Amino acid sequence: MGGILSILASLFISTVPTVIFVFLLFVIFNRYLFKPLTAVMKKREEETTGAMARARDQAAGAEEKTRQYEAAFQAARQEVYRQREAARRAMLEDRQAAIDKARQQSETLIKETQAGLAVEVAKSQKELLANCHSLGQEIASTVLGAPLGEG
To answer: What global pTM score does this model have?
Structure first.
């Protein structure tokens, strides 16, 4: 058994430089390759996560601005409709006022004309009554052939 232990000891002693070399390689790789690579990957992940968070924030901001724009657009549309309705009502009121004025003028003209016609009718009746007696006498004298006296 002593031979096996001596062989193992000689193998262990011959592998010590390899173990030291592998350990030094691990330390060098860890220091100059793995740590910077891990730091770069961590920084990249943080930047990606930060960019995604900023993108979400910007999307939320854009959504809010879109809602504000739509609300302002709807308010402007309602204002236009309100102004149109006010203009339409004003136009209808103006038209009704013009109709009422024309109706009043025509009624006044009709009353004046009727009053004038009534005066004309009364005047004509008086003339007819005045002329009726003299015409009756003329007709009677013409039919009878002799002049009639007054009375």
So the answer is: 0.45
